[in-house]
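hey so i finally got around to running the thing on that chain from the lab meeting. sorry it took forever, my laptop kept dying and i had to restart like 3 times. anyway pasting the input first so we r on the same page abt which one it is
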Amino acid sequence: MSTTILPAPPLRRRVICMVYEAMLLFGIAFVADFLFDVLTQSRHALSLRAGRQAWLFVVFGVYFVYCWTRSGQTLAMQTWRIKVTDNNGGRIPVIKAIVRYCLAWMWFLPAMALVYQFNLKQWPMVIAVTAGAAAWGAIALLRPDRQFLHDHLAKTRLLHIPAVKQDSTADQ
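ok and heres what got predicted. didnt touch it at all, straight out
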């Protein structure tokens, strides 16, 4: 089956995949932070904060770019049968993967800028970031191809890979 005729995954499936991805990223962040602390001899999580954030940005970027360019899927995307391709259904080149990774931060950056500007704390901060991410995701519902805006801008697309049906006679 050609990947160019596959539909975009439902928004619900993509959001659940992102939650699963966040859990996997927690493990990656744990290992990356440990390496950062060992390499910099840091003794406190808030020391070298900007360097730590830049390090995690790069580590996460390497993870996503590697997965997207190699197979079109991260571990979470494999589980939820979602694949990223270029607009023609082929593998995405490294530069498109980097652009997609940077643009994907738009899920959070506008809301985080508002949080910083208005010095929001606790629940107002959580509400602002959640509302910003929900608004960014809702844009996909307004698009005829149901793709996220960052995919449109990066000239990539998400595809819903159908489940492989097992032959019941093979088990007998």
